[in-house]
Structures are given as C-alpha cells and as structure tokens.
Design goal:
The structure is a homodimer. Chain A contains ten helices and 13 strands. By secondary structure, the first copy, chain A, is α+β, with helices and mostly antiparallel strands. The first copy, chain A, folds into two domains: 147 residues, PurM-like, N-terminal domain (60s Ribosomal Protein L30, Chain: A, 2-Layer Sandwich), CATH 3.30.1330.10; 167 residues, Phosphoribosyl-aminoimidazole Synthetase, Chain A, domain 2 (Alpha-Beta Complex), CATH 3.90.650. A seven-stranded mixed β-sheet of chain A has the order 8-10-7-11-9-12-13, sandwiched between helices. In chain A, a hairpin with a 6-residue loop joins strand 1 and strand 2. Chain A is globular and about 55 Å long.
C-alpha cells in the first residue's frame, strides 16, 4: 500500500516510469520545480501544489480567503527558491455542490490578493464537483534567466548553510490552532497562527540572492529544515553539519514550545511549512549576503552550519557537545 | 450554493475576481487553454483537467492504466484544438493511504504510454494523501507558432461548421458501462466502451487543420457538440444552424441508443466527452479540408451546418422540418 512505502518511495517508483525526456527539459521530475527551455531568453519554471481538506487544512480553522492566499504563497515560495519570477497560475478546484458561492469567491479574492503584488495573473484552470472534501490544486508558471537559476543540487563542500527568518514559527502556529487553550496570554498568538495559515514567501529575497551570484544552492523550507537540507545534500551528493546553538529559534517559538511541553529544536528542524529559504554560499560571502538581505528586504538570515563531503549525512551538533545524525527525508504526506 | 449557480455561473464570478492581467497573457481565464507570450518564437499553451473519482470515473469500471491514458488524452485534446504541440505535463495526485502501489504504477504507465507518442514528458507534480476519493489533476503545457494558433472566438458568419469522427460514441460507451446487460450481442461493445474510457485526441488532425490556414475557429468536443458549438458562438458573437440529418451518427451509436430506448440525436448533441474537433471554415474550403484530413490521417469529417449572424442562437433543423433552439452551455459538473 502507498502508506507503507510513503511519499518519497512512491516518488521514486513514479520517476522510474516517467523517465522519458522530451525536448527542452532542463530539470524534470523529482525537483519541486520543473525547468523548461522554451527557446526564449528565459527558462520557464513550472510547479504545482495541491491542498486537500483534512490533510493540508481544516475548514473550521482557515478562512477561504486565507486558504486562497496560502495556496498561491506556497507555490510562489517554490519559484522564489529557484531565483525566478512567478507569472501565471492555473487553478483546479474540486468542490461539493453544497459549497457556498461566497466561500469560493472569498478563496479567489485571497488568491488574487496574494497573486497580484507578486506579478501573477490567474489565467485558467478548471472546476469540478466532488462528494465531500474541498481540493485546490494550483500550478504556477514563472521565468528565470538561465544565469540566475539556482538549483538544490549544486552545493559544494565547505559552503556555509544559511536560512532566512525564524523556522519553527509555522509549527508553533499549528500547535496554537490545534490547542486553542494553549498559552492564552501570549502576545505572539495571532502572529504565529497567521504565519502558519498565510505564510509569506521570500520572493524578493530569492531574487536578490540569485542576482548576487554568490549562492551555490537553494531550496524553500516546506518539509522541515532538516528534511529540506537533506534534499540539498542528497541531490548535491554532499553532507551537512548544523550547530543547534546557532539555529534562529525565535522567543515566540520557545515560549509556545515551553507551554506545549514540546522541544523547540524539534519544531525548528522538522516542523515544516515555514517557507523560509535555505541556501548555501561560499563562507566568505556570508556577511555580505546577510547585510544585503537586511538592507534591501529587512529580512534576517542566519548561518547555521556547513556543507561537508560526507554524502547524505546530516549531523546536528547539540549544545551539550553530543551529536545526532539524521537521514530524515522530511514531511511525508502518507505517514502522518 | 455552488450547485444552484452551476459551473458556468461560478466561472463568471471567478473571472470577475481574477481579472487582473499580468504581462504576456494573450488569452487568459475563460478559455480551455491559456495562451502565454514567453518572448520566444512560439506561444506557450497551458491547460489543466482534474479527474475526480465518483464524478469523472468510477474505480470499478476503469483500470488505473486506462485512467492514466484518459487524463493525458483529454488534456492533449485541448492543446490539439488550438493547433498546438503538447510538450510537458505536471501531475497532481491525491490518494488514500490504502491505495495499492501497483494501482499508482499502472496509472503512471498509462500516462506515459499516452504521453510519449505525443511528444510529452512528465516533468513534475505532487503527491498527497486524501481520505477517500482518488484525484488526478494534470496540467499540460504546449507550444504553438503565433500564426498557427486557432481560437474559438474567431468564427465568421456563413462559415461552414465541421466535426471530425462520430460524436455520440463516447455517450454510447458510457451507457454500456452503466448497463452491462445492454445489447449483449453487439459487436461494437468493446470499441464504444474503450472510446469512452480512453478517448483518442485528434492531435495530428488539429495540427494539420492549423497548418492549412483555412480554419477560422476550433474547439474540442468535451461538453457535448451543441454545448461546445455554443461556446464558439458565444465567444465569436455569432449563432449557428445545424442540420440534424447531416450529423454523423454512426451505426454503432444508433444500435445502442435503440437498445437503450434513448434518442441517438440527443447523445450526439449533448453526450460530451467525445474529444472530436469541432471547427469552422470558409464553405469553399470544405472539400479540400475533408480530403486532406482523410488522406493524411484517415479521419473523416462532416459538414453539419453553418455559422449565422444571430448572436448566441444555436438552431437545430430536424428531419421533419421543425427546428429547435438551444442555448445549452453543455455539461455542467455541478448539475448532474
């Protein structure tokens, strides 16, 4: 059964069947974003993400407006991690016939309001009835100049590993949604919940990093920091060492983790759905990149470790001097 | 509720919200296929179609291999109707965790076998868990030279209306699937069932018609002949007259309709899911186009009526001299 081999096992089987390569495929199945050569000055980028009621969202805890914003945002994040510019979206929607028209209109209002400032136009898609669960599948197309394209597969040993913002906040927000009685007095409640429901993709940051010419590989943090770092390592044929003490754990994450009696380190490493950018660069460029990001976007970024030559080994050095090894592939939709 | 305003009512509401036009949109929301300018020598075409278990297919009556072929075929048909060449596909799949791995592999085998001969490579997509129904949403990208692009909105008054093959066969096949005891001795059983489950898109025919320079508008028959003709009329600001006696009703359709005590004319006009090409052309080009299609692809095509100046009126002249008017918009997924 699918749940026995999991999402990544299934992906491997599918890749084997779908291995035929047509013309113009620069980067095909297996990555978050396909890179396609349309004989123009720029490459075409294509990605899609499906949101399933009861799996990715619960109708009672997210408004249709937020859901619309969310499905655009998570696709924009994938394009941002390639250094690209999003352009056009197709939306496939499956809805029970009993859905309120206003629900759908609100979802489209959310999509449009997230799309327009990013330069995206909704150009098509299709509608279908379904018996119960709401499904929204968005395909986002974008462009990138070939010399600006950044892949996950090109990290080099000794590169510094950096991450934007504060991963773990989305996971803390999820905890607050699941447990409405948790930390009632916390001033971070609304911010963390919003962070989970309507993540803000790092689009300007991704484009800036791509233009800098200093970034050697990049991915967005959707599966979890450790899992996505593993994706970089696996596709680059490298390993990684992270210093737990250097992870940017925000006070809000620490506060909610403490209230929930949970491990904030765990949330930061494997919470997922942060949509921060995780990237690698020559250690000499780190301070320049950090300053550039802060000056031009106001976004902080933190060096959390380095790439090693040890293929597919992600080592995490804890504060007490001990180390843990992880080969986790991140969030698996069939094993939750 | 969505089922009260229907698929087309909902589409209008959505179009109003999503009306922002980004750069490079030649043809956006409202058509089956978006036409996008990627600054290359060819336009990019993008379309998507979702197949929902229990709505578009029933798991007991279609093998996963057939389902895979089907979802590729119906998207290829949309690209074919623009005169384009399909290139790249993204597949979003939502599956219950209890789905057999072999089921998914068979679906991908079907997709690959339909995709490869059409020059399509599966380049991405995503996988998700879902509680019960299987969902497969395919986005297909293609290209077309700007001078070969054929839209649905450019039919001219007095143009001849033509259709390839034998619409209604898919509907007859559906009847045989629904009523396994119907017409047990018919030699057409398997062919008609196959025609419904695994339609063959008219790709070579669409490209040939586009190259001819003689076709003024085109659409594929997915919603039903009358409904898709209405789409041409509505977007061209024209009307149409069809001669019922000239409709290409195949003997197999007549036979099964008779056995089912149904009206074969009804099946041909509104059965849908035929994936034939419906197009318009100068009346002087009709015999040339028919001969060209037959000589180069072996596909028959039939003149069934003409475009009129009466906006949005589709008139069907019956054999007994009477006429019926239809303003049917075709298959509505929320009203079935």
């Amino acid at each position: 059964m699918v749940r026995e081999i999991g999402e990544f096992g299934l992906l491997e089987r599918i890749s084997a069947i779908s291995s035929g390569q047509a013309a113009g495929v620069v980067k095909g199945i297996g990555d978050d974003v396909a890179v396609l050569d349309v004989s123009g000055p720029e490459y075409l980028l294509a990605t899609s993400d499906i949101q399933v009621e009861g799996v990715h969202f619960i109708r009672e805890t997210i408004t249709p407006y937020q859901l619309g914003r969310r499905v655009v945002a998570i696709n924009v994040s994938d394009i941002a991690a390639m250094g690209g510019e999003p352009r056009w979206a197709l939306v496939s929607l499956a809805l029970p016939g009993s859905t309120e028209v206003g629900y759908v209109e609100e979802m489209y209002r959310g999509m449009s309001e997230q799309a327009a400032p990013a330069g995206i136009s909704i150009v098509g898609g299709n509608l279908s009835r379904i018996s119960s669960t709401v499904i929204v599948d968005l395909t986002l197309l974008g462009v990138v100049a070939p010399e600006r394209l950044i892949l996950r597969s090109t990290a080099r040993a000794e590169d510094a590993i950096l991450v934007t913002g504060s991963p773990g906040e989305s996971r803390a927000g999820l905890e607050l949604i699941r447990r409405p009685d948790l930390a009632p007095g916390s001033s971070s409640r609304q911010k963390l919940i919003e962070r989970h429901l309507c993540p803000q993709p790092r689009l300007a940051e991704g484009q800036l990093l791509a233009r800098s010419g200093k970034v050697t590989s990049m991915i967005d943090v959707s599966d979890g920091l450790a899992g996505d770092l593993f994706h970089i390592c696996e596709s680059s044929g490298k390993g990684a060492e992270i210093e737990a003490a250097s992870l940017p754990i925000s006070p809000a994450v620490s506060e909610i983790a403490r209230a929930a009696d949970a491990d904030s380190l765990q949330w930061v490493l494997s919470g997922g759905e942060d949509y921060e950018l995780l990237f690698t660069a020559d250690p000499k460029s780190v301070s320049h990149l950090r300053k550039m990001l802060m000056d031009e976007t106001g976004t902080s970024c933190t060096q959390i470790g380095k790439i090693t030559a040890e293929t597919c080994r992600v080592k995490i050095r804890l504060a007490d001097g001990k180390s843990i090894h992880t080969s986790v592939k991140g969030w698996d939709h069939f094993n939750v």
